Amino acid sequence: MAKQIISTEQAPAAIGTYSQAVKVGTTVYLSGQIPLDPATMEVVEGGIQAEISRVFDNLSAVCEAAGGSLQDIVKLNIFLTDLTNFPIVNEIMASYFQTPYPARAAIGVAALPKGVGVEMDAVMVLE
User: Fold this and answer.
1) What confidence score (pLDDT) does residue 15 get?
2) φ, ψ for residue 116, nearest 5 deg
3) What is the pLDDT of residues 13-57, one digit of tens each?
4) 116 near 85, Cβ under 8 Å?
5) pTM for the whole thing?
6) Which of 7, 23, 107, 126 is deepest in the core (most CB within 10 A)?
7) Range of 91's domain?
8) Residues in a beta bridge with 73
9) How many domains does the chain have?
10) Cβ-proximal residues to 66 (8 Å cutoff; 6+ apart), any chain
């Protein structure tokens, strides 16, 4: 199957040697998103809540560019520099997703690009 590169200006441009997402068949692999404002490429202000919301907004934009939505995500990986923020992720995620929720992992990491507190990547399957 051929790979299709997914790209949108509604999410931050890639800041390395990767694509925002790659579609193969009906499966879309979304690269990690950090809380960058796509217009300025700067980290959003407002603390971890603002960072988590921006990451979900960025993932949503890439999902839409691929022809889907957050509801089509089947696997979500969440990377946090402070796992005590996990309840905040759950609270904010509930406003972006509806049941059935995707499979998910939360991973504590020492550091993330640009000193942010959260990064997420995902796998989406389209109808």
Assistant:
1) 85
2) -75, 165
3) 998 899 999 999 999 999 999 999 999 999 999 999 999 999 999
4) no
5) 0.97
6) 23
7) 3-125
8) 124
9) 1
10) 6, 21, 23, 28, 30, 124, 126
Nearest-angstrom CA–CA distance, 14 and 18: 6
Residue-level pLDDT at 1:
77
Across 49-82, b (16+ Cβ under 10 Å) vs e yields eebbbbbbbbbbbbbebbebebebbeebbbbbbe
CA distance readout (Å), 71 to 26, 32, 106? 14, 17, 19
Distance between CA atoms of 127 and 114, rounded to whole angstroms? Answer: 35
Average pLDDT value for residue range 58-66: 98
Q: Please tell me the predicted confidence (pLDDT) of residue 101.
A: 97
Tell me how far apart the alpha carbons of residues 109 and 96 are, in angstroms, rounded to a whole number: 24
Tokens of 49: 């809540």
What CATH number should be reported for the domain holding residue 53?
3.30.1330.40
